[in-house]
Amino acid sequence: MDLLTGTYDCKVDAKGRLMMPAPLKKQLSSILEDGFVLRRSVFQKCLELYPMAEWQRLMLKMNKLNRFKKKNNDFIRRFTAGVKIVEIDANGRLLIPKDLTVFANISKEIVVASAINIVEIWDKDLYEQAIDDAADDFADLAEEVMGQDDEDYGIS
């Protein structure tokens, strides 16, 4: 799978179905049949949509954790809480389960945003607030995360 690109304003219908934006659906076309995993984000009130292959890679890493350490078991349990396997139907819709809709405060207006190899699904107001909240610190964050001189960590 190629890396995903794009941020899209969308709507969710009364049944919790999201019509996947055509450009994003096109990017995911080669893996649509494999299915997806939808989960709660760790850091934000949004949802994360993992292509099945990405999810399986992540689970293989987590499977290496020593399960005889309580903190590892606690982490795995919390990380996988509410995880759902979902599909994009023939009409290009994704059904967002009710418990995940409630977690992410998803109403009618949402934002679907690529995040490298996964897709984030946000309530539109919460997304705009998160972007606004990070705006003041973004220059410092960008320098800290991406501005290192080491080729393995910096962009340039």
Question: What order do the strands of the largest sheet run in, or round the barrel if closed?
Answer: 1-7-8-4-3-5
Can you tell me the residue ranges where pLDDT is under 50 for at least 5 consecutive residues? none
Can you count the helices? 6
Quaternary assembly: single chain
Q: What overall geometry do the principal axes of the alpha carbons give?
A: globular
Total beta strands: 8
Termini separation (Å)? 24 Å
- Helix fraction by DSSP (H/I, runs of at least 4): 25-40%
Give the helices and strands as they follow along the chain: EEHEEHHEEHEEHH
Would you tell me the overall average pLDDT?
90
For the sheet with most strands, the description reads:
6 strands, antiparallel
How much of the sequence lies in strands comes to 15-25%
Structural class: alpha+beta
Radius of gyration (CA) equals 17 Å
Write structural notes for this entry.
The chain is an alpha+beta fold. The chain has 6 helices and 8 strands, in the order E-E-H-E-E-H-H-E-E-H-E-E-H-H. The strands form 2 sheets. The chain has a 6-stranded antiparallel beta sheet with strand order 1-7-8-4-3-5. It has a two-stranded antiparallel ribbon with strand order 2-6. A hairpin with a 2-residue loop joins strand 7 and strand 8 (118-123). The radius of gyration is 17 Å and the shape is globular. The mean pLDDT is 90.
Features:
two-stranded antiparallel ribbon, six-stranded antiparallel sheet, about 35% helix, alpha+beta, about 160 residues, 6 helices
